[in-house]
Amino acid sequence: MLLSRRPFILIAAVLAAMLVVTTIWSGMGRRAASIEPLPQSEVERTVTEKGTTYKLSKGRLYRVNARSGKWEFAQQVYDPEFYSKNYIEKNGTIFRKVDGAEPVPVKRHFVDDFESAKHLADLIGLERGWTSCELQSPKAPTVNDYVKLRKLIVKGEADFLDNRIEPIGEVVHGGKMALKTVSMSPSRGMITAKSSLSTELMHFVKGDDVWMSLWCHVPVDSGMPFTVLDLETTWIKQQPGMRIVIADGKHACFQLKGFEHPYYRQPKGKEVLFPTGRWVHLTAHLTLTEKDDGVIELWQDKQKIIDTHGQTLVLDHVIYNSFEIGISAYNEQGKRATLYVDDVSISNQPMKD
C-alpha cells in the first residue's frame, strides 16, 4: 500500500510545482507593456464582463483598453505546453508523467463501490485509482491548510479536523460500504467548503462521449450540497468543467464552471425535486465540445430530467482529467451537510445499471 500511495504524493507535487511556475509567469506578465491586438486567428476566447472585454491567447488573458485599443496582460490562465510537460504517448497509449516514477496510463473507464476499504487512505493510490481529496473547511480554510492535512491523514499521522471523508457501513446502496462525506458551513472569508474525493488520471477530450453514474443520499436533517459531481481540467486556473449542481437546494442540473458559467436546467415548471432521506440515482451523458452543440443529458432515478445542447468544454483543446465526487462545493450557513455516495462510474461508453 505504501508503494501505491507514493505516485499520489508525486502527482500532487507536480501540480504544486506547476502552480508556482504559473505564479512567477503571471508576475512577469504584469510588468510587461501593453501589446497591439493579436490577429483574431490567435484568439481562443473573448469574454466581456462588467463592460470590460478580455481576450485569451495561448494561455494568456488580456484586458482590452477601451481608449487605446491595446491589450493589457491580466493573468496566465494555463501553460500552453501543459500537454507535452505532463503526458507521453507510447504505442497508441497515453500516459500521465509522474516525477520520479514510471508514467501512469490514463483512464477512460473507472468504477468504485467502496467495498473492502476501511479508511480514506485505502482509497487513495494507484491500486484503487483515487488520487486526491479536498477537505476545505473552517479549520482548514486555505489550499495549503487542507493539502497539508490531507497528506498527514493519508500517511496515518493525523485525523480529520471537522470535514470528513471515509468509507462507512452505516448507510449503503449496495454491498456493505459506501462513502460518507461531511462538510461544515464555510466560515467568513471562504468562498466555499468542500469534502470530496477525486482522481486526476482521467482523459476526456473534444468529441468524446462521457457517461457518468452515481448513487447519492442526503439525510433529511442535512444541509444540501451545491455540487455532487465534477468533471474538470486541473490544467486551467480555477479548474473549469461540467458539474452536477443541486440548484437552489431543490433540483439537479448541469453547470459549465468557467467563463460565463452557463446552467443547463430542467424545463421550467416541470422540475423534478431532488429528494432527501433516500438513495437517488443520477446518470449523465455528455458529448464534449467548445461549441453550443454538445449533448447534455441527465437522468434522476431513470427519469430523464435534462435533454438539451450547449457548450461542454471551455476551450477546444481542454483535457478533462479530474473526476470528483462528494460535496465538491457547500455554501449553506448554519447547518452541516452530509452526503453518502455509492457505486460510482465514469466511462467513454454507455454503462449498464
SSE class: mainly beta
Can you summarize the main beta sheet? 8 strands, antiparallel
Unreliable residue runs: 1-31
Strand content: 35-45%
Task: Provide a descriptive summary of the structure in words.
14% of the residues lie in helices and 39% in strands. The protein has 353 residues and is mainly beta. It folds into 2 domains: 2-82, no CATH class; 106-347, Jelly Rolls, CATH 2.60.120. A hairpin with a 2-residue loop joins strand 1 (45-49) and strand 2.
Layout: helices, strands, pairs:
Blueprint: H1 2-30, E1 45-49, E2 52-57, E3 60-64, E4 71-76, H2 82-86, E5 87-90, E6 93-98, E7 101-105, E8 109-112, H3 120-123, E9 132-134, H4 143-154, E10 164-168, E11 178-183, E12 193-199, E13 209-217, E14 227-232, E15 241-247, E16 251-257, E17 263-264, E18 279-287, E19 294-300, E20 303-310, E21 322-330, E22 337-347
Which labels suit this protein?
39% strand, 4 helices, globular, 2 domains, mainly beta
TL;DR of this structure?
The protein has 353 residues and is mainly beta. It folds into 2 domains: 2-82, no CATH class; 106-347, Jelly Rolls. 14% of the residues lie in helices and 39% in strands.
